[in-house]
Each structure stands twice: as C-alpha cells, then as structure tokens.
Specification:
The protein has five helices and eleven strands, in the order βααααββββββββββα. It is an alpha+beta fold and 347 residues long. A hairpin with a 5-residue loop joins β5 and β6. The two termini are 13 Å apart.
C-alpha cells in the first residue's frame, strides 16, 4: 500500500518564478566557472517550490475565474428567460388594448361613443393601455441592454480564464524542462562517481532556514512511500532492509535527527550513501543518492540537508532508501517506520 505526505508551499505573486527560472544560469556563472550541478539543482528546486506554490495559487484563481464565468452564463440564461416572458406580456397587453378599442383613432372613438362619459371612460382605458405598453417596452429594452452587457462580461471572463490557463501551462513547462535537464546531469555525474568508486566530495548546499520544534523529522519533506521494510523481491538478496521514499532525482535529503556522519560511500549496491550516528545509539542510512553535502566526521543538526536523492547503485528508479540500524554496518537494520513513529515522526 502506498501512502504520501504532502506539505504546503509558499505562494508569492503569480508567474514571477517564470522570470527567475529563465534568468537562472544553465551551467556557468558570470566568471565562466562551472557551477556545481548539485547546487544548481538545489536552487532550481527552491525556484520550483516557489513556482509550484504560484502555480497552485494561479490554478485556484483560475477555478474562481471559471466559477465567475459559469455564474455569468447562468445569469444570461435567466435574463433570456425574463426577456422571453416580457415579450409574451407585451404581446398580451397589445392584444388586450386592441380588443378594448386602443387601436381606434380618436375621431372614431368620438363617433362610436354613446355619451361623453363613455368617451371619457374609453379614453382613460386607452391611456392606461398605452402606459402599460410603453412600460413593458421600456422594461424589455432595459433587459436587452443588460443582457448585451452581461454577454460581453461573460466573454471577457472566459477569455481571461483561457489566458490564465495558458500562462500556468507555460510556467509548468519551464519548471519541468529546467529540472529535467539538471536532474539528468546530476544523475550522470553520480553514476560516474559510483562506477569509479570514488566520491567527488561534499557539495555545500545553501541550507534552508529551519525552525523545527521537534528533535526528529522525516528524511524528505514531500514523498510517496514505496517498498517497505522486509519486502521480498528479486532486487534484494534476502529481504528489503529499509523504507523507500519515492522522490524525484535531486530532492534534498534531510538528517532525521542531530548526529555525526560516520560514513560517506560512493560504490556498491547502495550507490552513493551517507550513514549518521545519533546520540541515542542508533544509526540512520541514506542511500542511492545523487550527491552528498556532508563530510565524514561532520556533525549535523535535525533537518539539515545532507545530500540529494537519486537512483545510484542497485536502483530501479529515483528514490531514497532509508534505514535505521543498531550498528553503522548493513545487516543490523530494524523497521524504520515504527522507529520514526516512536520519535514522533509519522510517515
């Protein structure tokens, strides 16, 4: 069974990230020195995080725009029905006026009148009918003018919605294209390091501002759980020794708690991996990485970025393999999900 954990993202002004992403250097900085691809991916993830929030805000705004457009359409239907009723009323008034002599000229009304009082009554009835006709005509014309204005407003709402949808699609395509390019370059470099069995050294990522209220966190912020502890399959010699978090290449990987890095390795089935020793006597392993951001012996704090996810080593796709061990070496792993739960982290 797959489960997921999603977290809200920042929502600044819509589409500003499109400008940020377009201005971000592809490979080199202003001095012509190659930017580290790991840092580039990390920065793109920051941009993508902002842009994704903007995309969601824009999508919600577009849905609101759609609601307004649909409301305008419903209003138009109602107004057309009202105008149809007004036309029917006008027809009834005109027919009644004709039956009451409203269609006769004034001279004919004098000739046919039996007495002055009858003439006055007829004239009074005619005037009432004339006023009713004039009022009905004016009301119908006002309704038609209002209908025409609302039709124009409805067209504007749908045009604005179409424009907004196109802008959002452009933002999404830009994010995906830049991230795909950077992820591919990052993974290619990771594969080369694993093939050589030699790490390239720690990449100093710009750490995000953190203010964790708990001593423990999940190893990645946004994820889907895939293979769990003890799973069987052809990919493992015995049983799966950790919990896999399905995440895209380049996703920042966090230390689940404070501790000291006791191992950084770039070869073997785990590909690029980091092992952290924690004060409570347990160790955590982070494997199949695309890059590392720490050195062996370095102390790390809760939530600190220690690397980036990938698909290095014996891996069938991008994910983070996470283990909890009682020793720094493989073969001493325990189920990490209940262990995290005991430390207040539900995944």
């Amino acid at each position: 069974m797959r489960s997921s954990r999603r977290h809200p993202l920042l929502v600044p002004v819509l589409l500003s990230a499109l400008v940020i992403l377009a201005a971000r250097p592809a490979v080199a900085d202003g001095d012509g020195v190659d930017l580290d691809i790991s840092s580039q991916v990390a920065r793109l993830y920051e941009d993508a995080s902002v842009a994704t929030g903007q995309y969601e805000a824009g999508r919600q705004d577009a849905e609101a725009q759609r609601g307004r457009a649909e409301q305008a359409e419903r209003r138009l239907v109602q107004e057309r029905q009202e105008i149809s009723v007004l036309h029917e009323d006008l027809g009834r008034i005109v027919r009644a006026q004709y039956r009451q002599g409203g269609g006769l000229p004034y001279t004919a009304q004098i000739l046919f009148a039996k007495d002055p009082e009858g003439l006055m009554r007829g004239q009074h009835a005619v005037r009432r009918a004339d006023l009713a006709v004039a009022g009905a005509v004016a009301k119908s014309r006002r309704a038609e003018v209002r209908l025409a204005a609302d039709e124009g407003k409805a067209r504007s709402e749908w045009q604005a919605l179409e424009k907004r949808t196109g802008e959002l699609a452009a933002v999404k395509r830009t994010i995906e294209a830049k991230l795909d390019e950077a992820r591919s370059a990052l993974q290619s470099r990771a594969d080369a390091s694993v093939a050589a069995g030699s790490c390239r050294g720690a990449v100093r990522l710009d750490q995000p501002p953190t203010a964790f209220t708990s001593a423990w966190v999940a190893p990645v912020e946004t994820y889907e759980l895939s293979a769990g502890f003890g799973s069987g399959g052809e990919h493992w010699a015995h049983r799966h020794t950790g919990q896999d978090f399905a995440v895209p290449i380049g996703t920042p990987v966090r230390a689940v708690g404070a501790g000291r890095v006791v191992k950084v390795s770039c070869g073997g089935g785990f590909g690029i991996e980091v092992v952290v020793e924690h004060p409570n006597g347990y160790y955590t392993q982070y494997a199949h990485l695309a890059s590392v951001a720490v050195d062996q012996g370095q102390r790390v704090s809760t939530g600190e970025w220690i690397g980036q996810s990938g698909t290095s080593g014996n891996s069938t796709g991008p994910h983070l393999h996470f283990e909890v061990r009682v020793t720094p070496e493989m073969g001493s792993a325990i189920d990490p999900v209940p262990w995290l739960a005991e430390h207040g982290v539900v995944v």
